[in-house]
Amino acid sequence: MVDENLKSLTIGWVGTGKMGFPMAARLIEAGIDVTVYNRTASKAEPLGVRLVEKPVDLANRDIVYTIVTDDKALLETTMGPNGILSSDTKPKILIDSSTVSLEVSEKIRSKANEQGVIFLAAPISGNGNAVKAGQATLGVSGPRSGYDLVEPYLLKLGRGVTYLGEGDASRIAKLAHNVMLGIIAQCLAEITVFSEKGGVKRHAFLEYLNKSVMGSTFTSYKTPALVNLDFTATHTSEMLRKDMELALVAARNMEVPMPITNMTRDIIQKLIGLGYGNDDFAALIEMQARFSGYEIKSEEISVSDGLA
Would the pTM count as exceeding 0.90? Predict the structure, then answer.
């Protein structure tokens, strides 16, 4: 449904991967004026909006939103020769939802501020399916004035937005979030294998768990992958390792011990070493079963992901 109140500002969008594509689609569906850049243009064509050849071609948009793979991609997109900040024309606000290091985020913020551009870090929680279902959430940090201006647009991306403070407060919160993601994923693999080897069908155990106080949106939408061993990536094991390592670097700099995080990072490394690097981290359950002495098999049962 077109939202007439959101037509006053134009959006430039960079990155149409597993998360970026459905996020941009939600804005377009709301009737917002969106122009897109993606390194592989063909992946963005189904959005049905104007595409540009270089990130700098979006510099005349009021707001530019980036969600790319890593530090290198974000630096190139924003500060490279054809980056958003490379021309005399500048957007009012630059928003980034990439999972990157605090150092790179601060470098881009400093450059943007020098040029009079408000920079907001806006990590998003949820996978592509959660975005499509309107169930993703965002945490945002940076100048409050910038947040207040873009909040109505960010609300179109999911079910909630939280202002977390100045600077990179939202990056810290997202790293903490993804640490919990990894730890809970390993715990879920352990207790599901424990239950199955004890005679409980996987789908029955997970249904019981999801209905209990220990169930969550996360355990629900990982249930189909765990029941049917579908490891099509929503967030790869390699990406989760990157998240954990970024958190551990930040924790060391702050003198915060994180022993469980270190242990989980090593388990994820073992998963990658077994060849699951490009698979969804739900593959932890297959590794756990192997180490528990049996070959786990798909139950071939249709179960809910809780997102409907």
Answer: no
